[in-house]
## 1
Amino acid sequence: MSYIEELVGLLGSERVTTNPTVLEHHSHDESYHTPHLPEVVVFPQTAEEVSKIMKFANEKRIAVTPFGMGSSLEGHVIPYKGGISMDFSLMNQVLEVRPQDFLVRVQPGVTRMQLNKELKKHGLFFSVDPGADATVGGMAATNASGTTSVRYGVMRDNVRDLEVVLADGRIIRTGSMTAKSSSGYHLTGLFVGSEGTLGAFTELTLRVYGIPEATMAARASFPTVQDAVNTVVDILSAGIPVARIELVDERSIRQVNLFKETDYPESPTLFIEFHGSEQSLQHDIEFAQGIAGEHGCTQFLFETDSKARAQLWDARHNMAYAFVHKSPGKKMMVTDVCVPFSELADAIVNAREAIDRSGLDGAILGHVGDGNYHVILMIDLNDKDEVARADKLNAHLVEYALQRGGTCTGEHGVGIGKMKYQRKEHGAALDVMQSFKQVLDPNGILNPGKIFG
């Protein structure tokens, strides 16, 4: 009997499949990395079923790759060792909302939009917003962040507790529901960002927030990228409590106008959002507008209407898709570096110069409120010269960031795309990470080939 037949015995034939279309769907994410088919896809519904699958796979030395929505950008869910792709789409329940504790318990297959729809009934929202409607399990696995991290923090800041199934099938909990604890090692922080290499998440307890009384969004245009970045630095230095502050360069704005049929000025632009009371927001907006004016701001518009705000942020969130849909035959490469805030302005100027030298069509955008920025490149994977130039540009951006105390990835994660930079970034600490991996997954079945190679 093949191991796939044994899996059918564990879950039933309706939740174990080798259907070619399903295998293909689980062979890739949204990145440019080469796809690879799993041998089988399984759909567990409980932690106990995940435990059974893990025990079985560990005994048989079969690779297991967790799969959420497939929206990752560094090849995290590509099963390069074949084996089992474990799809969590059937574990998609919001288990408990605790409004007085500002907590929610969810299964890993719950998506960000699904969660916020449920939380809205309680006057709450989950803050981490990477743009894509990713699963919260996948967001925790990559330590996702996004547009709101400048105010509310990244995924690691908002996960209180995890239920994790280890490679040998043990089910553990890593934290608690309390706001703080000094008891033992911080296992939650270890597992968040581990990309499925240490265990599979089957439940998450997340921190949530009250929906603010008022929200305002602003769009500010500038003559140069440096003017825009200097404005960000001064706004944050002044202590203005912005909820989001995003940079989009002129090339990105041009693409949005083409894709969305908008008419935004094609110049470096900041998208800003403020959360608070009506009275405080008016002061914050005026203060921010004054700072922007000092840096040559050519247009400063703000919106309080929810529909207008949504349209404004829709332009930002659809940036990547604007490039994808208007670049037939090409794949998107998105770089993802983060630098100390004091290095941000020079880093973005350097990135623009590097793009221009490369001869590639590239755009810069990012969550500049926390030093994280991206370069979007659309490349023809069949053009070896173009691929080589893109790789060289990506390497330059990473090296620049590392030399200035930054990191090779601010939010997308390591996957396979950033493995080659791990030793340079972490030094001997990478050996410590590998020792954790060896202890928790001695047979190397969990998402093999990721982070460590």
Note: Residues 214-321 form a domain with the Alpha-Beta Plaits fold (CATH 3.30.70.2190).
## 2
Amino acid sequence: MTMSLLSKRDVEALRDDTPGAGNRIHFNNAGTGLALGPALAAVQDHLNLESQIGGYEASAAQTDAYKAFYANIAALIGAQPHEIAFVENATRAWDMAFYGIDFRPGDRVITGRSEYVSNYMALLHQKAQAGIEIDLIDDDDDGQIDLKALEAAITPRTRLIALTHIPTFGGLINPAEEVGEIAARHKLLFLLDACQSAGHIPLDVGTIGCHILSGTGRKYLRGPRGTGFLYVSADVLDQIHPPFVDLASADWIDANTFALKPDSTRFENWERFVAGQIGLGVAAGYTIGIGIERISHRICDLAASLRTELASSGKITLHDRGLRKGGIVTFQVTGEAPARTMARLTEKGINVSVSTAASARIDLPLRGLSSLVRASVHAFNTELEVEDFVRITTSR
């Protein structure tokens, strides 16, 4: 079956569902996507209900909306609802799984140069605290993780492969499926950071072969800030123990005994942003309704057009790598510091961000880069916005 692309009318509908779309050119969706109207309304409605009848009572009254989060996130990534946990952000979701692995001194973790800063600091923390060793895999000639080097690095002490799917500081989409095949051959745990890929490209945990996947609500899903999710496969659930527990993650059996929940809710906290969980469920359902393949196709097409137009100006150096590229475009304007480029664009009502070496110590310095401008498009963005962006960016 041929996938239907988003039409001009579809894009107009997306913009109608994006209250801020007419206010600015928002090319910072890798930071926070512009709020999705239906998700925003769901959050506001629940907060209003809490103000009228009380927080506990509002949660009890909205059980179906609250639980829809699990079904919608599961459908989005090809999992089962009982394999999904609500966590307050993607970093903490990743941490709940990573710190739940019973590492012993000398255990080895494989990762790549595009690993997210907080994840890599967690690796360093566990190196200091638990005595693990980090095997850092170089990029191949195309700029993605070197698959041959990754497999060659595996030893009997290797416990985990940790991979960032789409780095926060580049257009690269790492070959997660191929990494999953390697992990399966060697019977290794595979943890995938999908913070930038959830809502950006199609995800299927079965096809990818990851046992653990973490994601956020605020980026390409365009859900509320302060929301995230964690997938832990039922096949490995008992290999990963929550680093802390409370009355949501476990049941108190008697004065001296507790039992972890039998599913991935063992990684949750009891106190959480209930309105946000409802809103994220709505955002995931919205993405499913439009079709993630259609959304992803448009995002990647717009980004490819943006790269082409920027490159043709003769005033821009692009820094995206990888065989497969997504909606994040990184560049420098000749003779202008990235921070100044961002400030100049902000003055014109254009949102971008700057990625610095402080968040990419094992990548950007190796490439001789201290900072980059990051522009990240979404499906609601338009071709006219791309044209305006290029014109303004290059007219200094």
Note: The CA atoms of residues 375 and 382 lie 14 Å apart.
## 3
Amino acid sequence: MTDRPTVICLMQSSLDGGLHPSKFTASPDGGPKEWSSLYEALHDELNGDAWLVGRTTMAEMAKGTAHPPATPVTVERPHHFANRDAKPYAIAVDTRGELHFGGDNVGGDHAVVLLGNGVRDEHLAELAGDGVSYIVADAKHLDLADALVTLRRELGIERLMLEGGAQIVGSFLAAGLVDELHVIVAPALDAREDMEGFVVHRSDGLAGKVRLSFAACKPLDHGAVLLSYEVLASSSSPHMAED
């Protein structure tokens, strides 16, 4: 039995590799909303204890503004858990401490933030004051494998949904920390000049680090298909998060 959660990556892509359904051309049924409904249905079906995204993706959902405490406070390091029985959890990788929540949840799911050790105490106090849980890394950058072990040990997370964005998915794949990869391919196009695919690894790509073994292909509504793969990781070395 592994000491980390099973990591299940669920992503959605246009035919040309776009990541954001709001930018896709319409479905054959005439509207763009079908793409998000397909994703949400698969998210529920895969039944994770938690879902994890990078800073950029979480910033689209966490709409708070900075509100540090007015007076100095003592904060907990390396972690603070405001709720240990709140499945599912909404987890964000935010190594520099740039996210603000204004509450303890995202869409009703308890918020947990994974941070680098350079984050100021004032930011930790803000998170704790909002009822947000957090884990502070031993170093400036977050060791993903260590973070997963802590999430399983402290919060009982057994199945973690990795749901973007592209850089954080690339980091997990490069570290050999993804067990399953599920991609909804929509019959749509993105075609923006600045578009990037659903996986990005900035340093040297993923060649030699990841192999995929086909598991299944399932037709979905609105002309989409679900491609499922077992991830056979070639790399087992620690890898730092890109958020």
Note: Residues 9 and 162 are 4 Å apart (CA to CA).
